[in-house]
Amino acid sequence: MTLMELQNGLCQSMENGTLMRVSRILYRNPVVVFGGLIQFDTIPITDEATEEAVAVQNDIDVNDDIAAVYEGMNSDSEEDFEATYEAGDEDEDGDVGVEAAVENVVVRPSSSQPMGVPPFMCELDLDAMHAPEFPEYANRGIVDPEDGEFRIGMEYRSRKSVVAAIRSFTISRGVDYDVFESEPQTFYAKCKMYGRGCDWLIRASLIRRKGCWEIRRYNGRHTCTIGTISQDHSKLDSDTVAEAIRPLVESDPSIKVKSIIAEVQSRFNYTISYRKAWLAKQKSVALVFGDWEESYQALPWWLSVMVQKIPGSVVQIETRPLYNGNEEAQGVKILHRVFWSFNPCIRAFRHCKPLVQVDGTHLYGKYKGTLLVAVAQDGNQNIVPIAFALVEGETADVWHFFLRNLREYVVRKDGVGMISDRHESIRAAVNRSGGDWQPPRAWWMFCIRHIGSNFLRAFKVPHLQKLVVNIGYSRTVEEYNTNYKRLEERGEAYARWCDAIGLRHWVLAFDEGHRWGHMTTNLVECINSVLKGARNLSVLALVRATYYRLNELFTRKSAESHERKRAGFTFSAFAQQRIEASMQQAGNIVVHRFDRRNEVFEVRETTTEKVLVVDLARRTCDCGHFQVERIPCRHVIACCANQRLDWQLYVHDVYKMTEVRKVYRFEFTPLGDPESWPAYEGPTLVANPAQRRTSKGRPKLTRYLNEMDSRDMRGPRICRLCGAQGHSRSKCPQRAGPSGAGS
């Protein structure tokens, strides 16, 4: 039968005296998805037999578990958007209610998750991420007449495009309209002042034989005037703004809300509220990078394909059961934690410095969480991210999960150093590692910036913070003793606080060279800055951003290292600069040989009369630079020149261009069209409902929330006047005058 016959038949079958017209008929099509679950796509029935799949809820063959498990979490109301992105405090006491009963949950399919690659995912230039100027937007595909008015017969490719054109026209003219009829095949609107001085109306309809929408009726220009002047427009809603700023969000999802307000004002000549602009940004991010709930379901599929396409890559997923009341939902799991590392990064670490720096950064998306990052460095000071993890927060269990996988799959060599902050959860994880992150297999060291912050927080003496940092940077025992004595003279309690840390954990002179001169986690912070925009995205978009950005990094650095090697350079640019500087300073050094094997020398600097010992066999120099960076210092260069020795023998292999090229030798593989990917076999993953942000308001930026590592680092009350324990400055005896009264 024809569609008209079907519509008439349905009307007749409805025993209702009211005049009715069937405007839309939907068919529920069962589809088998993850884990054997059945979901239904709604397909509109038309006379052209076109199908337009719209995802709906699952509800059969799983004892209605899934249908009861996620409702209320997927609302797209403005109130929910406003409540979504508030950054709250993380739970420091372990798991955050993972196995708590969850009610009213609906799992939605992930077939619409976008798999395109916006420019942002490949962007490595931080300055370009915050471009002050906005590109001009292309027209929506319709060339309007010069006067901007509609004409009967104008064609549009879809209902959405014609409504958008009418809305844009209304906003630009400063007028408004009411929708008189809105059907799947017709859109009819009239001016708000229709019948009261203005006869403006417009009607557009779907023309099936042309496959487009066409303006069928138009009364011409508005003849009304706006009685009041408003800074905003009723038709300039968050959806319209979201579509307008889409090119900006594709380039930088962390774009400032103030920039969005300025762009809207420039384009539409209206000043929207901060809330509307912020809400539009969130909707635009969802349009470009995917819906949050669907991204959780698509994540394991993408990761499984990635591992197949790039063999040797590692993915470790931990899940938790999802409950509907007291019963466990079948075929659905909560994504608890995920660790991933790409094979090119795993191979790259073998040719980097044997040093890894780890840190965590908070996510600002719809769900709370933390991104953990491990970073290495090649012989040219280039950062090389080697592993990532999405976790619920920074707890002992979380760090144990990350460090265990990092050690098992990525950092497999012994004798490595690890730099992190002094978070007690990391300490607990290191102690639980079974020696994996303890000597002699590894050396755990602290970030000196965190130590300086902890000291300042404990004693409130900013003028001594720099001295504490200088102690950490001491390259020789003599330098350490000098700085330590200066601190002890200012208060014994300060020195005792430093003693409790442990020398090898933070002082350069006692780390046995495992730091390679790196004192902070700045490399990881650099990665945090690179991923700052991605921290607002859904989980799948964030993981894909790491994939495409690392591919861009490896491609660029591989080309750079190849060009340098082809140009005839033996060492990296960093090492070459260090060596050339040492050669320029080696001319004012007098060398005395102390053994027949040409291994031990005594050198004297003529400018300072300072005497130092150089041991080429042990590769040490009293200045400390030789053993820290593994590059000949000026004293070693002078000894080699004096005895006609080849100084290149004392440059570590990691700085040779042959080794730097090996870092980027392995390439990333394109994943191809998702339509060709194999089906995913496994449970459907959903977000932890307890991790969803619920408090109202705009996001509050957080930075190093974990710097206050633990309360025991604050130390006892210390007098800032005399440095003694047990009293404050206001009650210090030294403040008392001769008569005993406070002076």
From TrEMBL:
Residues making up the signal peptide according to the UniProt record: none
Domain spans labelled CCHC-type: 719-734
Residues of the SWIM-type domain: 601-644
Key words of the record: Metal-binding, Zinc, Zinc-finger
Pfam families according to UniProt: DBD_Tnp_Mut, MULE, SWIM
One function term, GO molecular function aspect: zinc ion binding
Stretches for region Disordered: 724-743
PROSITE patterns: ZF_CCHC, ZF_SWIM
Name by which UniProt lists this protein: SWIM-type domain-containing protein
Species whose genome carries this gene: Arachis hypogaea
Lineage of origin: Eukaryota, Viridiplantae, Streptophyta, Embryophyta, Tracheophyta
